[in-house]
UniProtKB/TrEMBL annotation:
<dbReference type="Pfam" id="PF01960">
    <property type="entry name" value="ArgJ"/>
</dbReference>
<dbReference type="InterPro" id="IPR016117">
    <property type="entry name" value="ArgJ-like_dom_sf"/>
</dbReference>
<dbReference type="InterPro" id="IPR002813">
    <property type="entry name" value="Arg_biosynth_ArgJ"/>
</dbReference>
<feature type="active site" description="Nucleophile">
    <location>
        <position position="176"/>
    </location>
</feature>
<feature type="binding site">
    <location>
        <position position="143"/>
    </location>
    <ligand>
        <name>substrate</name>
    </ligand>
</feature>
<comment type="subunit">
    <text>Heterotetramer of two alpha and two beta chains.</text>
</comment>
<feature type="binding site">
    <location>
        <position position="165"/>
    </location>
    <ligand>
        <name>substrate</name>
    </ligand>
</feature>
<feature type="binding site">
    <location>
        <position position="262"/>
    </location>
    <ligand>
        <name>substrate</name>
    </ligand>
</feature>
<keyword id="KW-0808">Transferase</keyword>
<feature type="site" description="Involved in the stabilization of negative charge on the oxyanion by the formation of the oxyanion hole">
    <location>
        <position position="111"/>
    </location>
</feature>
<keyword id="KW-0963">Cytoplasm</keyword>
<feature type="binding site">
    <location>
        <position position="176"/>
    </location>
    <ligand>
        <name>substrate</name>
    </ligand>
</feature>
<feature type="site" description="Involved in the stabilization of negative charge on the oxyanion by the formation of the oxyanion hole">
    <location>
        <position position="110"/>
    </location>
</feature>
<keyword id="KW-0028">Amino-acid biosynthesis</keyword>
<feature type="binding site">
    <location>
        <position position="388"/>
    </location>
    <ligand>
        <name>substrate</name>
    </ligand>
</feature>
<feature type="site" description="Cleavage; by autolysis">
    <location>
        <begin position="175"/>
        <end position="176"/>
    </location>
</feature>
<dbReference type="GO" id="GO:0004358">
    <property type="term" value="F:L-glutamate N-acetyltransferase activity, acting on acetyl-L-ornithine as donor"/>
</dbReference>
Amino acid sequence: MTFTWPKNFYSDGIHGHLRRNPNKPDIGWLVSTKPANVAGVFTRNTFPAAPVQLDRTIIRLNKPVHAIFVNSANANAFTGDVGMDNALKTQKLVAERLHCDESEVLVASTGIIGEQLPMDKIQAGISRLIESDPMNLAKAMLTTDTTTKTAQVTTENYQISGVAKGSGMIHPNMGTMLGFVATDATINQQLLQQLLRELVDVTFNQITVDGDTSTNDTVLVLANGDDWSKAIKAGTDAYKSFKANLQQVLKTLAIAIASDGEGATRLIDVRVTEARSKASAMKVAKSVVGSNLVKTAVFGADPNWGRIVDAIGNVGEVFDANTLSISINQAPIILNGQAVVDDGTAAQVMQEKIIVVAISLGIGHEQGQAWGSDLTYEYVHINAAYHT
């Protein structure tokens, strides 16, 4: 399926000379030609980047917006007052280009922490942005990513489309991960904000590559529908459908990020069932997928169930060992607290590219899921050489 934006949205991505490689776009925008309600969820890192601080302020205004500007190669994080001034200057330059108010422009950055934005290049790049292939924006967001990340759902009444980036410093708590979603559905800002926050908790907040929460994590959703006779309202069938479709887009983007972890060779998908609560199930799933010992075992294709049990136990809750069952790609390894005699099947399925760890706690009726990647030699190589 060709990736497209909903009606009255367009985007662009160009090489603005922030990167050395002229074939890699590094500046882009997503524009709504109509006023769009906006919702946003951001990093909980104690040192949020200047763009995050600015966008939080815009979200609190509860006013429509027209655009998101993004640059890669430079995170504009831990850059002090100068960094905030540069974020504001960027916002102003985009607003002047689109003939809109500065408060109608959001900005996002990703890349090296601690360096000031080269504002001469940012200004020159903004002057060249137009409307082009939507994939150009998806490319302009990338840092150590190996592939673009897109998702979309189209219904009879609306479309939801999204792009994301993220490969390293991924342990969202809303690395540098960014997600921009657009829809031509009609929904008010407060309901959209409430919905996004709820869905981020079960999608982006359930992925991990390396346990590091970035200074720049940002997820933004723009909705520019203006047919209020068909507005999506809480509790209706239309709301339930829209929620499921938005969750599908966010989940697809989240899994794409986890799959593209720096140096990754396998996707780890942890599914927890029969937990006391949904929160507990999600916590267990993320503990397992975030364990470096589990990650390295997956890289080595080693069905080391002791590491999975250890990660479950580290959650800090009381579980019953006698009701615990674990399987890897449907090969049982623990059944009601007892190790299953290994006939070689577990080691064989560990060779697959997607490793599904199914955990039944046997103490309730709730479930949760999390995604991550294995931890490889290449991850160390990438991050040892990242700054240079």
